[in-house]
Specification:
The chain is mainly α. The protein has a two-stranded antiparallel sheet. A two-stranded antiparallel sheet has the order 2-3.
């Protein structure tokens, strides 16, 4: 069977940039699964803010890894560190930093690594197994860790730069113009009236939850019930994409 080398046949100017594609199927698989878990950030922010975030941090996550490698790590290692793997790993880890800060875990579970030790608790004996505690977000971090450790040390450098860029964006350390910039509404199919309505709806819901908590003068139990219902509704709206 005749094989064709697409990379050799394709002109250099028509090939995609190396920071937009992976060079092996395993990294592509882990990146695709991680991006699938990141879809909740698009629901939380909306399409316009999500796309603006990616475009804003794309230049920084593209330029800083090779600059750090060429100007710092390569001279310090006497040219031993001279390889940076391809792929959008820095941008993916910048998005993962937002996922880590904004999305709470829903549940936790423990994998026992030893026999449960029986501890006396008053009249009852409670067996508390010792082991490793995970949450529903642990799988997402495990997939991202595969990317960060796939081609050391270059992949770890790319992941660290991306995580740092995401933290800087999260803590408003970037210029204000970059933080407030948004792509045009027509690109994501949004309209000004729709966004105004959504903003008004979110503000009214927030005022309603606040008034439900403050108006608990009849008793703490009733007020606590309203607060719990408000928090539960907010979390449910997050995962339904209402925000």
């Amino acid at each position: 069977m005749e094989t064709v080398d697409l990379a050799g046949e394709m002109p250099q100017e028509s090939m995609p940039p190396e920071n937009l594609c992976y060079t092996n199927s395993s990294e592509l698989l882990f990146a695709a699964m991680t991006i699938y878990h990141m879809r909740i950030m698009e629901r939380l922010w909306g399409s316009r803010k999500f796309a603006s975030f990616l475009i804003t941090l794309f230049p920084a996550t593209t330029l800083f890894p090779p600059l750090i490698l060429a100007l710092i790590l390569r001279p310090l290692s006497f040219n031993a560190l001279n390889y940076l793997p391809a792929g959008p790993t820095p941008l993916l880890f910048a998005l993962l930093a937002q996922y880590h800060a904004a999305i709470p875990h829903i549940y936790k579970y423990r994998i026992a690594t030893s026999t449960p030790a029986v501890r006396s608790s008053g009249a009852n004996d409670v067996a508390t197994p010792e082991g490793l505690t995970f949450s529903d977000k642990s799988l997402t971090y495990l997939l991202a860790a595969q990317l960060a450790l796939s081609q050391l040390p270059g992949s770890l450098l790319a992941a660290s730069v991306g995580w740092g860029a995401g933290i800087a964006w999260r803590n408003d350390l970037l210029p204000q113009t970059l933080m407030t910039w948004r792509i045009p509404r027509w690109i994501v199919g949004g309209t000004k009236d729709r966004e105004s309505f959504e903003g008004l709806r979110r503000r009214l819901e927030g005022e309603g939850r606040a008034s439900g908590v403050e108006g608990s003068g009849t008793g703490r139990e009733e007020g606590g019930g309203r607060q719990r219902r408000g928090m539960g509704r907010a979390i449910l709206d997050q995962f339904r994409g209402a925000f």
